[in-house]
Automatic annotation (TrEMBL):
This is Iron ABC transporter permease. The chain crosses the membrane at residues 33-58, 65-85. One of its GO terms (cellular component) is plasma membrane. Its main location: membrane. Keywords: Cell membrane, Membrane, Transmembrane, Transmembrane helix, Transport.
Length: 116
């Protein structure tokens, strides 16, 4: 429904808000959204195809457990996954803390995408 409202508002006359967005940030938002779609699509294709190939064509110990474990992300709501990733990858989270401790880095010594 929200997408339909946005599409319908594009058909009418532009308001000052749309004009301001077009002049300032809308192109950046569209480019970022397209890059995000391409990146997520490529990552999903890579992970999905390799996981399907492993479970369908290869015999290895734990294959049945692995194939069932691949279903677990479907059972978790997206907001719980997002909250977990934010906690893990945030500046004070275990991933960045371990990187700073292992390499002696300080804030600003390394680039990490902003999680929040």
């Amino acid at each position: 429904m929200p997408v339909a409202v946005i599409a319908a508002s594009l058909l009418g006359p532009y308001s000052t808000a749309w004009t301001h967005l077009l002049d300032t940030v809308l192109l950046d938002y569209i480019v970022n959204s397209l890059l995000l779609m391409l990146g997520v699509g490529a990552g999903t294709l890579l992970l999905g195809a390799s996981s399907a190939w492993l479970t369908a064509l290869c015999e290895f110990p734990g294959r049945r457990v692995f194939s069932w474990a691949l279903l677990l992300p479907l059972a978790m709501p997206a907001y719980i996954i997002a909250y977990t990733y934010t906690g893990l990858l945030d500046f004070a989270g275990p991933v960045q803390s371990a990187l700073r401790e292992a390499f002696g880095w300080q804030y600003g010594d390394y680039w990490f995408p902003p999680i929040r």
